[in-house]
Specification:
348 residues, mainly alpha, 17 helices
């Protein structure tokens, strides 16, 4: 046997040395996900992140940001990329990102359940290098402008020029994007998406297009086109646009109910109905006097802890406010171990 035969994967396989944001070829992304090694320390970081993320998607919290710190070369950027892949959970070469991580958490199923739960909702991620995407003018609005640029790019608008992006955003809100592009191409002879980069040089085509599509007067269209302040954006305006986008997206999600247990009509199931269903079905398989949802919770928590699940992760999965409540299950587990020991060991 040779040393290379001792490894699970071929050690002479080709691996991309550096993959930067934007190199989104499926093969590269699949390799990144498959080759990522989740150490014990990273397991703790994943558990901490997704436990905190769960609070944000199941309730309200003012803690909306995450700061990833570490020494140079410690893997901060790579960790961030993995979080973005997991949260969006896109299908890469026929396999969802989360499924590619299942084996990496075989010894920590509780954390994997947190990750898996976080991907059940509709999540979009915008990943970018702020040094590369930033504008040359580094004034006090630089960070705001690069965030606005990337958000509008994500929506399909031209974020490189915020004036153009906000015009496209307004036209889209009026439901006239296709009409605007058609009329512009009729006048210019070239597609809007190809020419919007040269926005400032196409006033003779843009102004009449705005007049026709938005029913603007010639003076109003010219005034807007020549207005230098139209490129300015405030934090409030960007937040308002983001909020409007999320609300519009949620309205188009087929009205899916956020509750886990739902009735045939899609509405949340009443707690009493859940208890009745659990009791009826438990009666078929157990002889316990207590046959309530709490019995399932108790069994779930004890089984997870018996298999060395992270206590903090179990706490989040059970929805406990304090670790003290979760620790009750560890006491039960230890008592069961003592009982087995006394029954089986000759010197107990």
């Amino acid at each position: 046997m040779q040393i290379k035969d001792m490894f699970r994967k071929k050690i002479d396989r080709e691996i991309q040395g550096v993959i930067i944001v934007g190199q989104g070829e499926e093969t590269n992304v699949a390799q990144e996900l498959d080759e990522y090694v989740v150490t014990r320390e990273l397991q703790r970081h994943f558990a901490a992140f997704f436990a905190a993320y769960k609070k944000g998607i199941q309730g309200t919290t003012p803690k909306m940001g995450v700061w990833i710190s570490g020494f140079f070369g410690s893997g901060k950027s790579h960790f961030l990329k993995m979080l973005s892949y997991l949260l969006e959970n896109k299908e890469v070469k026929g396999i969802h990102s989360v499924e590619r991580f299942r084996k990496k958490f075989e010894d920590d199923p509780a954390t994997f359940m947190l990750i898996d739960r976080a991907t059940k909702g509709q999540t979009e991620t915008i990943l970018f290098n702020i040094d590369i995407e930033g504008f040359s003018n580094k004034d006090k609005t630089a960070v705001l402008r690069v965030f606005a640029k990337m958000f509008y790019n994500h929506l399909g608008f031209y974020g490189e020029n915020l004036k153009v992006a906000m015009m496209e955003r307004y036209i889209d809100q009026q439901g006239k994007t296709e009409e605007f592009r058609r009329v512009f191409e009729e006048k210019k002879g070239k597609p809007w998406l190809e020419m919007r980069r040269a926005f400032a040089f196409n006033g003779k085509f843009i102004i009449p297009t705005l007049m026709k599509v938005l029913d603007m007067s010639e003076d109003d269209a010219k005034t807007w086109f020549n207005d230098k302040t139209a490129t300015e954006i405030s934090i409030a305006q960007l937040v308002e646009d983001m909020k409007a986008y999320v609300e519009a997206r949620n309205e188009s999600c087929d009205g899916k109910c956020e509750a886990f247990f739902v009735r045939k009509d899609g509405r949340a199931m009443l707690p009493g109905t859940v208890r009745l269903i659990v009791k009826r079905n438990l009666s078929k398989v157990v002889t316990l006097k207590k046959r309530s949802p709490h019995v399932l919770r108790h069994t779930f928590a004890t089984s997870m802890l018996n298999n060395h699940a992270n206590l903090e992760a179990v706490k989040e999965l059970l929805g406990h406010e304090s670790l003290t409540t979760t620790e009750v299950y560890t006491h039960t587990t230890f008592e069961e171990l003592k009982k087995v020991y006394k029954q089986a060991h000759p010197r107990a």
